[in-house]
Amino acid sequence: MPYNIKEARKNIDLILDLAEDGKPQVIRRGYKEVAVVVSLEDWNNLCERHAEYDRSLGDQGPSDQI
To answer: For the segment 51-62, what is each residue's pLDDT rounded down to a tens digit?
Structure first.
């Protein structure tokens, strides 16, 4: 469920708990989705997968873009 900024401020503990449980939470500004809250573990896993992908490309593609 996406949260607008006002809802996110009011429910930050719930949003963090859900994210920590592996359920990313979307934050909206108006009708535009602008951010995702994920657990640090999920973030680190995503970064590692990105790095592995870059290493698999070798010199075939850019390595500094996320």
So the answer is: 888 888 886 655
Beta-carbon contacts of 46 under 8 Å, excluding residues fewer than 6 positions away, are 38
Q: Which of 24, 56, 57 is closest to 40 using CA atoms?
A: 24
pTM for the full predicted model: 0.74
Q: Tell me, yes or no, whether 12 lies in a domain.
A: yes
Under 8 Å between Cβ of 33 and 27: yes
- List alpha helices for the chain, DSSP H: 5-10, 12-20, 40-57
What domain range includes position 23? 3-58
Structure tokens at 37: 């809250």
Q: How confident is the model at residue 4 (pLDDT cuts 50, 70, 90)?
A: very high
